[in-house]
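Protein folding task:
====================
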Amino acid sequence: MQAGVRFLSSEVHPFTIVFFRAFLGVLLLLPLMFKWGPSIFKTAHPKLQIFRGFIGSGGLLCFFYGLSIVTLAEAVTLGFTVPIFATLLAIIFFNEKVGRWRWFAILTGLVGVFIVVRPDLEIGLGPILVLIASLSWAISVLIAKKLTHFDSDISIAFWQTVGNVPLALAMSIYVWETPTQNQLIILLVIAIFGTIAQTSLNAALRRGEVSFLLPFDYLRLLWSILIGYFMFKDFPGPGLFIGGALIVFATSLMAYRESRKS
């Protein structure tokens, strides 16, 4: 999905891509009610779902725009900071107790972010937008953690996607250009893979241990480097490998400590 966004963003504005990702995602999920009935989309917390959709929409707008101006590998690497932000938010808002190992992981991850972003040279708009997206998704993760106790995976994915539409539409109006037929096909592919990934991740996290699933998620970094090199001739510098390794280590350590605690 991210490679498709990066490829298409040279022709279609990222805000327009976000709108079609959300709108087509809703259309892809709606037929599920013919199999399981309208109750599959039922939610016990509509206001919380709407708020999460708004937050997620802002994150998606930032991420897609950031993805259009940074390398694919850099965007994916900075996206791994979501667990770090989620932990910090849990400490601030939920008074969650964090031991020395998780504090060590948080600090290590933040050092990795600084190495990737390189603020000593110049802080670009792209990395900042990706980090803002990661922060918004961290908020979304904390909300989803509560919603999984009441709503189905499909319901959570559906209302997240519905919530993305209004803000994405409002932002895309100012830069609107009607996509061509070929562009619409790519937009549909982006929506299909994005929707499948969203619902699959909800289901996987509900059924599997995070410490087991996390290494598979890190394969995205390898794929992003390979796709970025062959499709866009982007090859990351040593800073991304060093910083990325620290971020991966930090989030892995946090997942391991969480699994030990549970």
